[in-house]
């Protein structure tokens, strides 16, 4: 019996190369843990960063299909979007790369009070340039809300470059002149283990009947374990822990002070 990880994205829509576009997840897909977790935490953080008074300017960096646009507008943000490719609806405001030369028209829209950058930076090759651009786009007192995964399979290849730690985010932020307000490690052993289980398939290692039997048993065990983790049934009795060392994703709030 041999276990294989699922790594190929060869059938992926080219428009979805750089982003998790819509934050929806299938029950048995590897993203069935990370997507609901991220959506909940991003929405809660957006709400906490909204203020009464004049509309704040928000730029959605790597916006994809703009899943957080409705909430941002309900919260009173003046929403603008930026990405490497136009989306299906054709409503991305500015096109370019966050680690390249920014379009003059994008800079003219700023400065921004909030930069929303969710699950983008693992696909950004040059973090030094990207963080410098984040700083330049922010108003004084403005913030960056960013997330990037720590435990997740290779995806959106060949543009999958990094799995960042909180220390990497803090280092790049501080060297770009940004203050770290908070960095959270989202998810834990349950989410990380479930993601890894969903990313693994089993196939017979030999042609013999015993190999087929063991492979079938492994597939059943994988499915049962994944469902127990996903449904929350297992956590009624035991909580898988990563001890703070294994977790699903990073969420950071950074601020420009001057």
TrEMBL record:
Keywords attached to this entry: Methyltransferase, Transferase
Amino acid composition bias (Basic and acidic residues), ranges on this chain:
12-21
Q: Which GO biological process categories is it annotated with?
A: methylation
Top-rank taxon = Bacteria
The ranges of region (Disordered) come to: 1-21
InterPro entries linked to this entry: SAM-dependent_MTases_sf
Compositional bias annotation for Polar residues: 1-11
What is a single molecular function from GO for this protein? methyltransferase activity
Q: What is this protein called?
A: Methyltransferase domain protein
Source organism: Pirellulimonas nuda
